[in-house]
Predict the structure.
Amino acid sequence: MQTNKRQLTMMEMMTRKRDGVGAAPRAAPGPPQPDALDEKLAAANRVFFGHGSFRPGQQRAIRGALHGRDVVVVLPTGGGKSLCYQLPALLTPGVTIVVSPLLSLIEDQVSALLGAACGGIPAAHLTSGTKEAASRSVLHELHKAGEGRGELGLKLLYVTPERLAASPTFGECLAKLHRRRLLARFVVDEAHCVSEWGHDFRPDYRKLGNLRRSYPGVPFMALTATATPACEADLRRSLKISPDALAHRTSSDRPNLHFAVEDYSEGGANDVREAVVDFVRRRPGQCGIVYCMTQADAEACADLLSERCDDVKAAHYHAGLSPANRRVTQAAWQAGRVHVVCATIAYGMGIDKADVRYVVHASLAKSLEGYYQEAGRAGRDGAPSRCVLYYRRQDVAKIRKLVTGFGRMKRRGPRLQRDLDKLDDMVKYCETPRSCCRRQRLVGHFGADPGPGNGDRPCCDLCDRRAGAAAPPRAAPAAPPRRGPPPAPGRARGPPPVRAPKPADVVDLLGGFSSDEDVAYPARKRRAR
């Protein structure tokens, strides 16, 4: 029984396969020079992932990880954060533990790795959605490798923070791997969830700093797309990131996105729905997302689009539907069988689709961080895309009441004030003076210098008006055929009365859904087809 066999990296495995098992052993290589390491990284990026080059910031973060440093990466949505830890995992002995908040995000990442063009990258996940047989197999492999009774072929293991906190068996496996120096690093994806300054704070994420005490010496990598300087400083403290950590923050600017706000404060909820229908109808066949405030709004919007737009297939997605139907809509949307998903904020971090041409917010987001993350789902392929928000001042009071809480659940303290301040920032964005630029306000919010104008590239509705460009007209949609009797004499037509929010709606709005509730279901009209 061999107990001291060194773990092979993926690059070494491929080299041995190419040269043959019986080839003479090579001398141990010395420390690579910077140019040699760059060549090795470029080759690995091409072989494993099929990429001809790195995106800005990726190579620097990867080099820092390979040198065993803690790394903090802030890249915009679509900036390629995953490669920053996936490539080092393949070039480092041992297994990389990736903590991620959503099941859909985890499952998509693992599926992509297993189906990589190089023949597949050894990856797995341990979540509440993992089948029992698969869980046993993964834990068995970790247990054997930790005791020196077998090789560890697994390179990337994705887990939820709940699994880390609630599984003693998994903790024992990690302890054994740590003693044998087979824990390559811990990766905290969507790291803004760690911080109380973040827009999606989760208490289980706050506990991840305890991993430092349990597994000393294992480097950390924290990645996010939406962290203000205050949020970044807080997550560094919480995760106990080393003072000499490599930090890489690129501009949050997404120059291919065009931002616009349409003020419907003088209209009603029905007017916003008609505007959304008109916007989507003028873009047949394009892929998009419509964010709604509540679950009921998402269902009604999907049904209305399916009814009124002949060439558009729409579906709804929110956290309150049966887990048995989860991922049905997302799979159809990813495959192009559904054009538009009408969703609550439950459809946020789990999306990885490059050709989203527009993101529409049919109601106000509760923070600029949340809005920019959701709007950033558009145009990940670099092509021009649109981000439109339909603003009603009436929504501000509604969200403020929901953020504050009701009765015995009424919130108090600094956390509440921070959330209210975030809402005020969102309102200021919607009410940006005409002499300013929405893109500059968004980018500047994250602490980066937005620079001058956007040149000839798409920018925002305010810049379009100042430049004399013809902003896309907000044509009044044709009125739908009337159903039922006319209104009673003397009674003005108008939007329906505001419905009191259900508990599930409050959960969606505040982002308090669990990672096990990431579910999908198609619109009712399309279900029968």
About this structure: Residues 45-249 form a domain with the Rossmann fold fold (CATH 3.40.50.300). DSSP finds 21 helices and 14 strands in the chain.
